[in-house]
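Chapter review: from sequence to fold.
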Amino acid sequence: MGAPRSLAVRTFTFALVRTFTLALLLVLVSFTGYALAAEHWTDITDQQWIDDYGVTADEVATVADGYPDGSFKPYQAVNRGQFAKMAVNGLGLDTAKPAVPTFKDVSRTHIFYQFIEGAYAEGIVGGYEGGLYKPDNPITRQQTNSILGRYLSTVELEVTGVIRGALGIGYPSLQAWYEAEGWFYLPAYDDQAQVLAIHRPATAYLIYRDVVKGSNNKLNPNNSLSRAQAAVMVLRVLAAADLITVAPPGPTNLLTLPASPSSDGRPYVTGKTIAGGKVAVYDTFGGGPRRLLKPPLTAGATSPRASRCSRRVSTASPPRSRTKPD
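The token string follows.
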């Protein structure tokens, strides 16, 4: 009878130690930050977003909601109403609730009313003949390109005043950029002829901005867009907008000849800055800064990213000049 009792004790002791060890391991895992977090949605893992689309589930959640059952339905085609909501939410635009609906088929009680009206007020969506929006129609890729291209090009125009081309030339509108340079980006795709004229400028612009990449040398402009693809497109545009709106660095390699301070009333001020950027030169002698160039000079374009500029500055006081972006 002694042997079984000893076995039972050993078995109990092992089970107790294992239970304690597992409990201790769970506590350590929790405190060291390695505990597995809950997935955002039930039908696509957080890791899939990273592996398949290059974005995080947290980022996607800023653009699109899931469904009440906990799913996202990533491969379901997105319709025009849903995409209006994605664009407004993802790009941080204001919703709108006008007393009189803009579109005959989107009443004030429509689930996407405030998003469609908000997108329309921002000038990024339009409708069809007869005053219709057709919110339940699947949105096509080229329609998506126009919506997002309008937004991004408007951001660039508001921030810089121009659409900056690959050669450093500034254009006053998206259409002007397309006619001069933008058309060049479409022939690289086998099905570019299927892109309607109204969608060509925005599609080319998104290619130029590395938002639209195509697949197997095709744009598939008439295909629908899945919910996952639509969310990723919005995030790409948001990232491209950040690149436009982040302030460029100030001029570098600044040099005043002769060295400041100096009795020379006409010094040279040289430095490197963004091609086409506006640069103002200030005299800081004898008090507060005083602008010496009106209007600011424009840097000459020697490359798409940087240029070297110089300007002889006339001043009656001993110069202590510097340059900064205007």
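Two observations follow directly from the output. Confidence is low (pLDDT under 50) at residues 1-22, 24-35, 300-326. The first helix runs from residue 2 to 32.
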